[in-house]
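User: Could you check the structure of this?
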Amino acid sequence: MFWGEPNGASQRRTGNLQPVPTKLAAEPRTIQPRQLRRLQALWRRWAGRLALPPEQDRRLRHYYIWAITQHRCPNTRMLSEQQAAQVIAWLGRRVRQAEAPLDHIAGVAGRRGYPEHRRVPPTAAAWRTLWRCAAALGMNRAELDRFIQRHYRSAGLQGVASLRTMADMNRVLWGLKAVLRHRTKPGDCARQPRRAA
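Assistant: Sure, the predicted structure tokens are below.
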């Protein structure tokens, strides 16, 4: 081969012609495991309230996938990575729209002026927040029970097991958050010497 010859020129000159491989377009990647988990979780949050039998739930999910992908994909496992992202984004928007009123109701339960929201059961997010606040204050379950009993006995609360409504949960959460706001570090209140008046 001489310098400056175009690709394949030396092969043509010597009569040794071989096909030059061309780059094939990359196959689209299929749905990734993390996307599959996210899609299934969003689907349960959005369609779980229908309480459909498993086969009907699967058929409904596949219908939505088919519609969202503009009739290109008939089921979950055949989604490409890009199509899965499209379905996840669509479901995420629907979940936010569906849960926004519930989040508002959960947030105002127990406040004055919202008596209609008093019987709403505690949400999973509220339970997570309760345990995070307790952990930030260095409380275990027994200490949290004592905190609730000491501060909220007059409201009929004896401990964590008494938190049956969002109004009860919010009452305790507001108290824990107030303690957290006033405490710079866990244990500071106990260590500070009392000042003489």
